[in-house]
Design a protein that fits this description.
The structure is a single chain. By secondary structure, this protein is an alpha+beta fold. The chain folds into four domains: 59 residues, Arc Repressor Mutant, subunit A (Orthogonal Bundle); 41 residues, no CATH class; 98 residues, SH3 type barrels, CATH 2.30.30; 77 residues, Alpha-Beta Plaits (2-Layer Sandwich). It has nine helices and 13 strands. A hairpin with a 5-residue loop joins strand 1 and strand 2. Helix 4 packs antiparallel against helix 5. The longest helix has 18 residues. The chain starts with a helix and ends with a helix.
Length: 305
């Protein structure tokens, strides 16, 4: 009985923007305290449920959350559609026809989206994408198109969690990373957020009027200050040439005697890990401090530290 109620509660939350604990308690004939206990269990199951206290509070699910594709097996899905189609034909029920149409369209929408614009194809997914990143991209794109305010739970690179309401203006693809450029109500200024660092996203139901901005207002350079970069000389084995070219660019790598060498200014952030990802096929010739850091990290890995 408990798990049936949990599933029914989840379906209710998916169907409604926000409900109160009392409404759920009345609907499923349990106490408010039990509802909160069930909500905690759903949260422990990694379902992004938000509980807001206070007069205008309530319980809601992130707009980017959806049930796993395997919630229905292919056979169950086909059987349900067939039964609904037969029932709709017999009783001439317009609501059943509409429901069937929505279910079938949802199945098509679950397939990974690839945007096509003229001669450009953009695959918005990331490696390891289980669908959640694609859903965030869809939600961000909708918010930009509809000038819709959204509330996001954002995790910074340092691990700091923050909840903000933002007005998304435009999506940016820079160095294979997707960003949303938005006005942040918390900071009262325009900020750039990595889509991959948005934990949950919910439409607030409000809209905003876009302020006039210039192309130069949008920080597309993503430059690093000089104290966060270093000029690095790398020696690259031919076996790793293709991957190194995609990282550094084909023009940056030149033959020097029997070796392939690249002299380039790179951001220090994540540089050691990037070099180690080549498995020894990229060697740091200079500066010595970075070469020593690569050796130190490699030894820690080898020793299991």
């Amino acid at each position: 009985m408990k798990y049936q109620t949990l599933i029914k509660m989840l379906m209710t939350l998916l169907a409604k923007r926000k409900v109160t604990a009392q409404q759920l308690a009345d609907r499923y004939e349990v106490s408010v305290r039990t509802i909160y206990r069930y909500i905690e269990e759903l949260i422990d199951a990694d379902i992004p449920i938000d509980v807001e206290r206070g007069r205008y509070g309530g319980i809601s699910v992130s707009d980017t959350f959806r049930l796993p594709a395997g919630y229905f097996t292919r056979e169950e899905y086909s059987s349900a559609c067939a039964a609904l189609r037969a029932w709709a034909a017999q009783v001439n029920d317009g609501a059943a026809v509409s429901a069937l149409d929505k279910i079938e369209r949802q199945s098509k929408a679950d397939k990974r989206d690839i945007s096509v614009c003229g001669n450009i194809i953009v695959d918005g997914g990331v490696w390891g994408d289980t669908g959640s990143f694609t859903d965030k991209m869809k939600a961000c794109e909708r918010a930009v198109n509809e000038c819709a305010c959204v509330q996001i739970d954002y995790i910074s690179r340092s691990g700091e969690h923050s909840r903000r309401v933002i007005d998304p203006y435009v999506l940016i693809l820079k160095r294979n990373v997707w960003y949303v450029y938005a006005f942040c109500h918390t900071k009262q200024s325009f900020r750039t957020f990595k889509v991959g660092r948005i934990k949950t996203l919910k439409f607030t139901g409000g809209n905003f009027v876009k302020q006039p901005i210039e192309r130069t207002d949008i920080p597309l350079d993503f430059t690093y200050s000089s104290d966060k970069t270093a000029e690095v000389t790398l020696e690259i084995e031919r076996a790793a040439l293709a991957d190194a070219e995609e990282w550094l660019g084909v023009d940056a790598i030149e033959p020097r005697g029997n070796a392939l060498v690249c002299v380039v200014t790179l951001p220090m952030d994540g540089l050691v890990n990037k070099i180690l990802s080549f498995g020894g096929a990229v060697k740091v010739l200079a500066p010595q401090a970075i070469a020593d850091e690569v050796k130190k990290t490699a030894l820690h890995i080898a020793n299991g530290v």
